[in-house]
Amino acid sequence: MRISGATSQKSVSLGLVLLILIVLSALPLYASMYAVILLTAILMYVVITVSWALFSGPTGYISLASAAFFGVGIYTSALLGRSLPLPAVIGIAGLASFMMALLVGAVTLRLRGMYFAVFTFGLVELIKRLLLWWEMTVTRTRGRFVIIVDNDTIYYAMLSICVVTLLTAYLVRRSKFGLALQSIGEDEEAAAHTGINVTALKIVTFSISAVFIGAVGAIIATRWTYIDPYIAFNALVSFMPVLMAIFGGMGQFYGPILGAAVFAYLEEVLITRFPYHYMLLFGIILIVAISYLPNGLVGLVQKWREAGLAREHADT
User: Fold this and answer.
1) Cα 131 to the chain's mean position, in Å?
2) What span, in angstroms and rounded, lies between the C-alpha atoms of 261 and 116?
């Protein structure tokens, strides 16, 4: 009976996922342009947050380098967008982010705790300042113009990257690779003693997570007419996935997804209605969430589920 119930639950979950994918695939056919643009932004944050959680969630290493990989993707699109097709630009952006993460990971992933977080955040500022210096002193121009792509193409590209990101994160989480990452987060020294090459595993996972962030950077750049180092390497992109993952809760696979979707929608609503106070309101929401939802939205969902099961048992 338990096996049958588990199989039935998996079938329902798979059917729900397919239904959501069909609805999202057909969205531009029936929804307004505003809805398409809004969902594109939500999908972008889902990709960045899930990519961040792919590495930082199980290992406990807080990476603040998301803005660096995102900016690399944006500048790749600005440099190559006029000479190459969009899929090629996205692929090169992902590869460039992977190579940067590989180099950074090889240098920094021997550090632990706050040292790694500070170094990765410093990387964002370093790239931003070096690029700004290069543009102002060598090219004598600040920023670049980006080729514009229609919103439907951007949406479908973002949706495709999101599906690949979620599938990768799901497979990693359920594999021996994911168990090894989890063991690193629980006790890195013990994991090393069991024969796991913890440094190589951290570097590879960190690099894989950077691919998707760079890819969405290349896609989203085509929505903007102009970019410069301050726009491309915005430090907020490094902090947002951390906040979204905490807000959603990292105890379950769907936690970062839920946190990114809700948080991105709140950002849009607050910016639209309270353009001068939305950061203050964001801070209040985060304080309340951390104080009363220590396990994020996932913890709240689990409490509701447990309460429902308790009522069913009480009725029987």
Assistant:
1) 24
2) 27
Reading the block at residue 247, the tokens are: 């807000």
Evaluate whether residue 286 is within a structural domain: no
pLDDT truncated to tens, each residue of the chain (316 aa)? Answer: 445 555 656 666 677 878 888 888 888 888 888 889 999 999 999 999 999 999 988 888 888 999 999 999 999 999 998 889 999 999 999 999 999 999 988 888 876 667 888 888 888 999 999 999 988 888 888 888 888 888 899 999 999 999 999 999 999 888 888 888 888 888 888 888 888 888 889 999 999 999 999 999 999 999 888 898 999 999 889 988 988 888 888 778 888 898 899 888 888 888 888 877 777 877 787 777 777 776 777 777 777 666 666 666 666 6
pTM: 0.88
Number of separate domains in the chain: 1
Number of H helices, E strands in the chain: 15, 2
Rounded-to-integer distance, Cα 84 and Cα 122, Å: 32
Q: Structural domain of residue 51, as residue ranges?
A: 31-266
**Helix 86-108 and helix 151-173, axial crossing angle in degrees, nearest 10:** 40
Amino acid at 11: S
Residue 14 covered by a domain: no
Q: Scanning the structure block, which residue is given the tokens 């792919």?
A: 54
Question: Is residue 297 a part of any domain in this protein?
Answer: no
d(C-alpha 116, C-alpha 113), whole Å: 6
Return the CA Rg of the chain.
Answer: 21
Give a yes or no: residue 20 inside a domain: no
Tell me the two tokens of residue 207. 């690099």
Instruction: Catalogue the long-range contacts made by 149-154 (C-beta closer than 8 Å, 24 or more residues apart).
Output: 149/86, 149/222, 149/223, 151/28, 151/33, 151/36, 151/37, 151/40, 151/223, 152/28, 152/36, 153/86, 154/40, 154/219, 154/220, 154/222, 154/223
The DSSP H or E segment spanning 139 is none
